[in-house]
Amino acid sequence: MAPTSGPGSRGSEDPGGSGGSGGSGGSPGVRDVAVVPGAPVAFKAACPDCRARFELDAGALRLVIGVSRRTTFYSFTCPECGIQVRKPAGERIVELLTGGGVSTLRSV
Fold first, then answer.
1. In what order do the strands lie in the sheet with 84-88?
2. pLDDT digit string (tens) for 5-26?
3. How far apart (Å, rounded) are the C-alpha atoms in residues 106 and 74?
4. What is the pTM of this model?
5. How far apart are CA 85 and CA 93, in angstroms?
6. Residue 63 backbone dihedrals phi, psi, to 5 degrees
7. How far apart are CA 27 and CA 48, in angstroms?
8. Do residues 54 and 45 make contact, with C-beta atoms less than 8 angstroms apart?
9. Domain ranges of the chain
10. Using 50, 70 and 90 to split pLDDT, how confident is the model at 41?
C-alpha cells in the first residue's frame, strides 16, 4: 500500500526492504508513500485474498502499535471482496502510515 499525491511527490519507496513491511517476497501490502503538504494522501494497496489493486485514503486504514513487532500491524477492508486485511507493520511502514495521517492506536 502506498500513499500517492500530485506532482512534486517523493516518489516510490519500497518498505518491503529491511524496515519490515507487511509481508515478504512481494506480498501485497503497503508499497510506498508520496506526500505533498496539504494534499490528500492515497495509499496504493493490494488484497492478498482476491489480488485486487486499489487506492485507499488514510481514513480507510488503521495502524496499531503494540509493545513488540508481533503486535504492531495495520489493517484495512478490501473494497473489492470485503475481506479484513491485517499486515505486520515494521518501523518504515509505521513511519509512512503515521506521516500519511493514518489513525494510530497504541496497545499495552
1. 84-88, 73-77, 62-65, 103-106
2. 443 333 333 333 333 333 334 4
3. 12
4. 0.66
5. 15
6. -120, 130
7. 7
8. yes
9. 3-106
10. confident
